[in-house]
């Protein structure tokens, strides 16, 4: 494995700069577990005990210790909190200001808050790259979470379980939505009838189907294209994309 300060994978002989990188590669690409720390609740493995204890295990916990100082909403990680607070800042800016701060995809004009998200967008949407391979059947996935979800089809594991009923799932987002049903909290309430929903998407569908003649007062609409949404911040981000495209057209001419 070790040759001239580089480490090589014994399976495919790819070169790596450290043993930690090799051990992660062996698990991700070849399904070989060497010196990895394992989660007790799901199939997640990592070479970092700190990452397992302080980051990953929060997924399985309902604790949300990181609170937004604007609205009080709690989050499991500081990264989630930072992303949330960026929405508060977004509401205070104009479409032009938002457009100036976005990192833009040169292919489609979509804007992102950071270069990393833009690169992921290009790889998945435009280049159609799916670099994460299932070591059992060869299925390819665009990201690690999709691969983990796929692997659970082979293992039969449904690691996320409800503590109030016997519901289990492969996806922690499905569990989050399921638990909202137990709580009885339905954030989206129709002002025209008794309908309420736990998700924005189903609320929007209700408005479009049941109250099509009154949807203008209930949905935020783009003035340029047919896009509509129940969230003002989504419209701001969408409108900023038009500003980016307009700027690109102006510069091109």
From TrEMBL:
GO terms for cellular component: nucleus. InterPro entries: C2H2-ZF_Transcription_Reg, Znf_C2H2_sf, Znf_C2H2_type. Residues 37-65, 66-93, 103-131, 132-159, 160-187 form the C2H2-type domain. It holds the Pfam family zf-C2H2_4. Gene3D superfamilies: Classic Zinc Finger. The lineage of its organism: Eukaryota, Metazoa, Ecdysozoa, Arthropoda, Hexapoda. GO terms for molecular function: DNA-binding transcription factor activity, RNA polymerase II-specific; protein-macromolecule adaptor activity; RNA polymerase II transcription regulatory region sequence-specific DNA binding; zinc ion binding. It comes from the Eukaryota. Keywords: Metal-binding, Repeat, Zinc, Zinc-finger. This is Putative transcriptional repressor ctcfl.
């Amino acid at each position: 494995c070790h040759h001239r300060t580089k480490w090589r994978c014994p399976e495919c002989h790819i070169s790596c700069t450290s043993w930690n990188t090799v051990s992660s590669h062996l698990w991700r690409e070849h399904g070989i577990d060497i010196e990895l720390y394992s989660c007790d609740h799901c199939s997640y493995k990592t070479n970092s005990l700190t990452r397992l204890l302080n980051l990953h295990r929060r997924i399985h916990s309902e604790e949300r210790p990181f609170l937004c100082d604007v609205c009080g909403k709690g989050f499991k990680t500081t990264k989630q909190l930072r992303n949330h607070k960026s929405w508060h800042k977004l509401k205070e800016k104009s479409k032009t200001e938002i457009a100036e701060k976005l990192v833009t995809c040169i292919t489609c004009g979509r804007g992102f808050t950071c270069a990393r998200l833009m690169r992921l967008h290009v790889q998945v949407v435009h280049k159609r790259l799916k670099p994460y391979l299932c070591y059992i059947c060869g299925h390819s996935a665009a990201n690690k979470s999709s691969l983990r979800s796929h692997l659970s089809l082979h293992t039969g594991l449904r690691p996320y379980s409800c503590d109030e009923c016997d519901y289990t799932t492969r996806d922690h987002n499905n569990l989050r939505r399921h638990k909202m049903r137990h709580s009885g909290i339905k954030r989206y309430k129709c002002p025209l009838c008794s309908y309420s929903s736990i998700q924005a998407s189903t609320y929007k569908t209700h408005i479009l189907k049941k109250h099509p003649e009154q949807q203008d007062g209930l949905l935020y609409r783009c003035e340029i294209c047919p896009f509509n949404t129940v969230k003002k911040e989504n419209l701001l981000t969408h409108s900023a994309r038009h500003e980016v495209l307009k700027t690109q057209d102006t510069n091109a001419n």
